Amino acid sequence: MTVLLSDPRIxxxxxxxxxxxxxxxxxxxxxxxxxxxxxxxREDVVRRLLSAQSALPGGLRLLIVEGYRxxxxxxxxxxxxxxxxxxxxxxxxGERLHVEASKFVSPPEVAPxxxxxxxxxxxxxxxxxxxxxxxxxxxxxxxxxGACFTDAAGISAxxxxxxxxxxAVLTRAGLVNYPTEWWHWxxxxxxxxxxxxxxxxxxxxxxxxxxx
Length: 212
Prior knowledge:
With 212 residues, this protein is an alpha+beta fold.
């Protein structure tokens, strides 16, 4: 059974931070989907992404869509999607709205992107042409009818091969996937800690880090 970011077990994981900086790398291509989106990621996440990229077949590379996200932006994303669900499902309880919203946007209090340990990404050719992975990056569960889920049935054989390739290189590099979003991978934050049975995170929310 899929454990969502709204699950109390995720919030219960102790938060630690190893002090790594947020950085970018010229070796990773960045293609944001809207203005003001950050390519910044923790140092070890960048190293792992470069390692994953080096394992791709010739002519392919990772295409980064989003990295670090401020708490303010996360709150705006979550409340906006929750309001959209409420408008479309007036019979849903507040608890169900919270859970369903967490399939697409993390509750701010546990958000992986706010730690700099999460990345939204896809596969592209060396010329920047995106491969077919079944849905657009950031397709929500409602509009995609669940095709955004990593293991969704009904996507084309080509899309499945591309998802499997992306998963293979990123998993080998030590990242974990949020199973309702094929493009969302992370390392060192609470969801990673849950899946790897770590006793605490390696990264906490960037805004909560003590001053140097």
